[in-house]
Design a protein that fits this description.
Layout (H helix, E strand, L loop, with lengths): L1 H16 L7 H12 L3 H13 L2 H28 L6 H8 L2 H34 L8 E5 L2 E4 H18 L2 H29 L3 H8 L5 H6 L8 H18 L16
Antiparallel strand pairs: 1-2
Length: 264
C-alpha cells in the first residue's frame, strides 16, 4: 500500500513539474562522485606544492579543503530538502535573496563558471590521452590563424564535450547510464590505488622519503629547496593554494541542479 502511494506521489509531482523522476540514490551518488573525482587533482597538485613548499603544508591544504567541502555539502543537503526543484543554487538564491541575484548567478554559471570548468576538464582529458596516444599533442598543430594554433589536444577536447552534450540531450536515462559507468570505473580505480598503496607503499624507503622531513625544514636548511612559509606568509600561501584544491573538489553541489528529476 505504501509503495502504491509513493508511485502516485511521484506521478503527481512529475505532472506538476514536467520532469520525470528517474535519478535514484545510486545515480545521485554517481553524479556527485563522478564530478568530484576527476582530473583536477592532477592539475593543481603541482601548483599547491609550489605555493606551500612542504609535504605537510600540502596535506594541510587538502584537509582544510575537504572540511570546507563537507560543510558546504551538508548545508546544501538541507537546502535541497527544503527546495527540491530543478535549478540548485539558482533556486536557493532566489528564495534567500531575490530573482535578480538568482538571474545574475544563473547567467554567470552558464557563461563563466561551468563553461570554464568544462573547458578545463576537457583539455586535461585530451592532454592525458596524449600520454597513451601521442598524436594528441600540443605540438601537433592542425592549423594556425595568426598567433592562434589549433592543436589535436583542442580538437579532442571539443569533440569529447560535444559528444557528452549530445548524450545528455537524449534524456536523463542516457546521461545517467554514461555517468554510472564512468563514475563506477573511477571509484574502482581509486579503491585499487588505495589498496596498492597500502600493500606496496608502506615500506621503510617510502616512509623515509615522505615523512623524514614532513615540514620541509631540513631540506631548506640544506639549501636543496626554498624555505617553507611561516606565520602570515603561510596563511597567505595556504589561501592561494586552496583555490586549486577547492577547484578540484568542486561539483559536490551538482546534484542540486537535478531536483525534480530525483526519485526522492
Amino acid at each position: 500500500m505504501q509503495e502504491i502511494e509513493e508511485v502516485k506521489r511521484v506521478q503527481t509531482e512529475e505532472k506538476a513539474s514536467g520532469f520525470k523522476r528517474e535519478i535514484t540514490l545510486f545515480d545521485a551518488i554517481m553524479i556527485v562522485t563522478g564530478g568530484m573525482i576527476g582530473s583536477g587533482i592532477f592539475i593543481v597538485t603541482a601548483d599547491i606544492s609550489r605555493a606551500v613548499v612542504s609535504p605537510g603544508n600540502m596535506l594541510l591544504v587538502w584537509v582544510l579543503s575537504g572540511f570546507l567541502t563537507m560543510v558546504g555539502a551538508i548545508s546544501y543537503g538541507e537546502l535541497s530538502s527544503m527546495f527540491p526543484k530543478v535549478g540548485g543554487q539558482y533556486i536557493y538564491l532566489k528564495e534567500a535573496y531575490n530573482k535578480m541575484v538568482a538571474f545574475l548567478y544563473g547567467w554567470t554559471l552558464f557563461l563563466v563558471i561551468q563553461t570554464g570548468i568544462i573547458a578545463a576538464v576537457g583539455v586535461a582529458f585530451a592532454r592525458f590521452t596524449g600520454v597513451l596516444i601521442p598524436w594528441f599533442s600540443e605540438s601537433n598543430v592542425l592549423f594556425s590563424l595568426g598567433s592562434f594554433n589549433f592543436t589535436t589536444v583542442q580538437l579532442l577536447a571539443i569533440v569529447s564535450i560535444l559528444y557528452l552534450t549530445y548524450i545528455n540531450s537524449r534524456g536523463v536515462k542516457s546521461g545517467k547510464l554514461i555517468q554510472n559507468i564512468f563514475s563506477s570505473t573511477k571509484l574502482i580505480a581509486l579503491f585499487g590505488l588505495i589498496l596498492f598503496g597500502l600493500l606496496f607503499g608502506i615500506n621503510d624507503t617510502a616512509l623515509q622519503a615522505n615523512f623524514s622531513d614532513f615540514w620541509g625544514t631540513a631540506a631548506a636548511a640544506a639549501g636543496t629547496t626554498e624555505e617553507p612559509p611561516v606565520g602570515m606568509a603561510l596563511i597567505t600561501a595556504i589561501g592561494i593554494a586552496m583555490v586549486g584544491a577547492l577547484f578540484s573538489s568542486d561539483s559536490w553541489n551538482n546534484i542540486g541542479f537535478s531536483g525534480d528529476e530525483i526519485v526522492n
